[in-house]
Fold this protein.
Amino acid sequence: MKQFRGFVIKEFYHIFRDKRSLFILFGMPIAQILLFGFAITNEINNVDIAVLDHSKDATTEEMINSIAASEYFSIDQFIEREADIETVFKQGKVKAVLNIEKDFSQKLIKEGKAYVQIITDATDPNTANTIFNYVTSILQKFQSSKNKSAEFPYQIVPQTRMVYNPELKSVFMFVPGVMTIILMLVSAMMTSISITREKELGTMEILLVSPLKPFQV
């Protein structure tokens, strides 16, 4: 036990004397905690969305303003055609499109119900679901505020449509990340194996005297 303790103490001395070892031991974990814990998040804040308003009346304008007034969404642009929906998604400018049907206010008054389609980019399924839930919550609050002064209560029905990943398969999001991690691990392992093999074969000195810089080796 004393031998093991002495060995551990010796290794600690080596680590604390080597600045690179200290950085790997303390600096990298702190940086990774900050990165993975705070920088990478599924929370949405000021997400850019586009609006396709077929009705263009006072009610839809008020509804759009209520969404824009929230801290979660920012109206990036208004589009005029259905064909523009795919264009804005391909440009990567927005994460969602609010598609308001024609004669929205009239349908609320006459039929007591109108539909709003929420189109989201489902390449990130978690974010797509979160955006839909947040927009639905804002629409419900807007509906409740309007029903207080309405003679007959009406209902705003949100409909969801996912593009690029309609089945919401998370594998499309996780697999690229897993591939990157595997490549990093394999690269580190192969580097260690190569250096160890060079030392075992006695060819490490050949690498050291070669006209290559350390980072190239």
